[in-house]
Design a protein that fits this description.
By secondary structure, the chain is of the alpha+beta class. The chain has helices spanning 9-17, 57-64, 76-84, 97-108, 148-162, and strands at 21-23, 33-35, 39-44, 69-72, 112-119, 122-132, 135-143, 167-170, 182-185. It has a seven-stranded mixed beta sheet with strand order 4-5-6-7-8-3-9, sandwiched between helices. It has a two-stranded antiparallel sheet with strand order 1-2. The longest helix has 15 residues, at 148-162.
C-alpha cells in the first residue's frame, strides 16, 4: 500500500525554497504549520557571509580525540525518532508522527540527511536536516553523551565545506550555542538567502 502524507514531500521542498519551515504544535498534534521566522541563525561555510566559522578550542580537542564513531545517513529514522523523544529537559517537541513520516520520505528522495554519533555500537547523538542546492537546513539534534551532537555538527560542517556548500541555516540558531554564527534579520525575500548553485 502506498504511503499517505499530510503534505507531499515535494511541497515541503518548495516551502524550504520560500524560507518556510514545517512544524507541529506538539508531538501529539494532528496538524503541521509552516513558519516564517524573522530571525535566521546562519553558520558561514565560506567567506560570502564574512568572519568565517569559530569552533571553540575545547571542542576542537574533543573532536581530535575521536570519542565517537561518526556516520552519515546510516540510520536516519533512528535520529529523527531520538530528536522527537521527550526527556527531562524537553517536555514536548515539534516533531509529530506526520513530520517524522515526511522527513523519512525526504530522506528516501535524497533531500534529508542525518549525521550519527555512536559509542560501543549505540546511537548516542546526531542531527538531521535538509539539503537544497548549496544550502543545508539543520532541523534538530539530540545528545545522550557529552558533546556527541556538537561533534556530529563539526563533522557535518567539514563535509559541507568539502562539498562546496555555502550556508548552514538554522531557523533560530539556538541549537548551536558553542559556535559563532551570524543571526540575520530577514530584510530580503527568503529565496535570496539560498545559494543558487
Amino acid at each position: 500500500m502506498a504511503d499517505s502524507y499530510l503534505y507531499a514531500p515535494e511541497t515541503i521542498i518548495k516551502a524550504y525554497a520560500l524560507g518556510l519551515f514545517p512544524m507541529a504544535e506538539s508531538h501529539d498534534s494532528s496538524e503541521i504549520r509552516f513558519y516564517d521566522p524573522d530571525m535566521r541563525g546562519l553558520i558561514p561555510l565560506d567567506d560570502s557571509t564574512g568572519g568565517g566559522l569559530h569552533i571553540p578550542r575545547r571542542l576542537r580537542r574533543r573532536v581530535k580525540q575521536h570519542p565517537y564513531e561518526i556516520t552519515i545517513d546510516q540510520d536516519f529514522a533512528a535520529v529523527i525518532t531520538a530528536c522527537a523523544a521527550r526527556s527531562d529537559t524537553r517536555t514536548d517537541t515539534w516533531i509529530n508522527k506526520d513530520i517524522r513520516q515526511l522527513y523519512i520520505a525526504l530522506h528516501k528522495l535524497g533531500f534529508a540527511h542525518s549525521v550519527e554519533a555512536w559509542l560501543d555500537g549505540k546511537l548516542v547523538g546526531g542531527l538531521y536536516g535538509v539539503r537544497l542546492r548549496s544550502a543545508f537546513f539543520g532541523e534538530s539534534m539530540f545528545s545522550r553523551q557529552t558533546d556527541s551532537s556538537k561533534i556530529a555538527l563539526v563533522h557535518l560542517i567539514a563535509r559541507l565545506r568539502h562539498g562546496g556548500f555555502r550556508l548552514l541555516d538554522a531557523p533560530s540558531g539556538e541549537d548551536y550555542p558553542a559556535f559563532h554564527y551570524h543571526r540575520l534579520v530577514r530584510k530580503t525575500p527568503p529565496a535570496d538567502l539560498i545559494p543558487k548553485s
